[in-house]
Amino acid sequence: MSTLRGADGVFTLGGASLESIAAQAGTPTYVYNLDGIAAEARALRAAFDGAEHLVAYAVKANSAGPVVRALAAEGCGADVVSRAELLVALGCGVAPERVVYSGVAKEDRELDAAIACADRGIGAIQIESVEEVARVEARARAAGRKARVSVRVNPSLELAGATHAHIATGHDAAKFGVRREDVAAAVALVEASASLELVGMATHVGSQLRTLQPYVDGARALFELVRALRDAGRVKSLAFVDTGGGIGVDYAGDPAAPALRPAEFVRAARKEQHARRLDDLALYVEPGRALVAAHGVLLARVIQPKVTATARWLLIDAGMNDLLRPALYQARHRIVPLREAPSDGSTASRDTVAWRVVGPVCESSDDFGEHRFGTEPPAAVAILDAGAYGYSMASCYNGRQLPAEVFVSGGRVVASSERGSVERWVEERVGVGVVARAR
DSSP string covering 228-248, please? Predict the structure, then answer.
């Protein structure tokens, strides 16, 4: 985590005072440390030891322009799942040939956008079903182009206990990828088409993986399949193998059980790749969370405490509409006061009690869990490790507006966006009603 407690008791992120940012930008506000994000990318790329590779940043984790530009400047490509994300990646300087496009239900106009990029289209459209081959072929033929594609393999791995069921993607019941027994049929269709070029084979077993084994198992399943296809005289046009993303982060911040670093996942995958004699192929990875989560926080103001005979609640102005992960995945984020309460050195001044931190949304699931603060609650807090799947999953539920975003580099604010306007939202919603009644 890139936050530090300063000498004055105030938390900083990337050298910038979070208390000052909250005062100037208001709350709820996301704050990101661009220098920390760039450092994550450099460390991950170094793990390839000069071998041909692509770190295709999963834009869905955080699609903010300054974040994507910072990663593009470090040599990262992009993994996108919509036309909008494709346009963001291209607009932030990612070269088309360094983009892979995933997703099980790409619309024709999205395929058209991917195929039409530059002279040869994007780096690869990820085929996720046998049926999708014909659709991509038809769009490429209509455009008079040869589309580069990769086949995403579902490795049929169960991850019970390894991650949350909602983010496990490599098992037989998942909607993602081509089942292993159908891969040969998908490859044959691609190789028989004059409008398609098979450049890659990919897999992705799930997200928030905290141990190496599921990732290694997925990579091994992919590499064994590619080796078998090659030995059978197939997939001669392959340029890369892609082991996906899903590398987890340490949300608990437990120094006794530190998280595996992304570089360890890469080294393990490279070892499996070498064992299958596939070193001539570039190795692609698709990290998202691992690059950005630890370098973002969500600032919130404490509206009031609520104390009863049985519970203590801390009511804050950030809710599940701002950070959905706790409600959706039962995820737990650490929460700290922006300013540490002064201590007179006595035991009483250091005592803490459990507060249940909850937001303003009218849902019981708008709950960030129990956290320990002093008996006098703080005025404002920071929800840590919120750089991934925070703002990108935010909504205007309950008429609450999207939070602001602030970007820090070199110890100062270098970019920001304003919070959504209540008045504009009301005007838009009322306008919808007026149009409906006029029909």
Answer: HHHHTT--TT--EEE----B-
- Burial zone of 154 (CB within 10 Å; 0-12 exposed, 13-18 middle, 19+ buried): buried
117 is catalytic: no
3 state SS for 96-154: HHHEEECCCCCCHHHHHHHHHCCCCCCCEEEECCHHHHHHHHHHHHHHCCCEEEEEEEE
* Angle at the Cα of 79 from the Cα atoms of 133 and 263, rounded to 5 degrees: 125
pLDDT in tens, 266-313: 999 999 999 999 999 999 999 999 999 999 999 999 999 999 999 999
Question: What single letter denotes the amino acid at residue 273?
Answer: Q
Please choose, from the candidates 333, 373, 295, the residue with its C-alpha nearest in 3D space to the C-alpha of residue 2. 295
DSSP letter, residue 225: H
Give the integer Cα–Cα distance in Å for 376 and 359. 19
pLDDT in tens, 221-278: 999 999 999 999 999 999 999 999 888 888 887 766 666 788 998 999 999 999 999 9
Spatial distance between the Cα atoms of 123 and 102, rounded to a whole number of angstroms? 12
Domains and CATH numbers, the chain: 3-31+294-428 (2.40.37.10), 103-285 (3.20.20.10)
Among 76, 92, 362, 396, the one annotated catalytic: 362
HEC-encoded secondary structure of 302-357: EEEEEECCCCEEEEECCCCCCCCHHHHHCCCCCEEECECCCCCCCHHHHCCEEEEE
- Rounded to an integer, the average pLDDT of 160-171 is 44
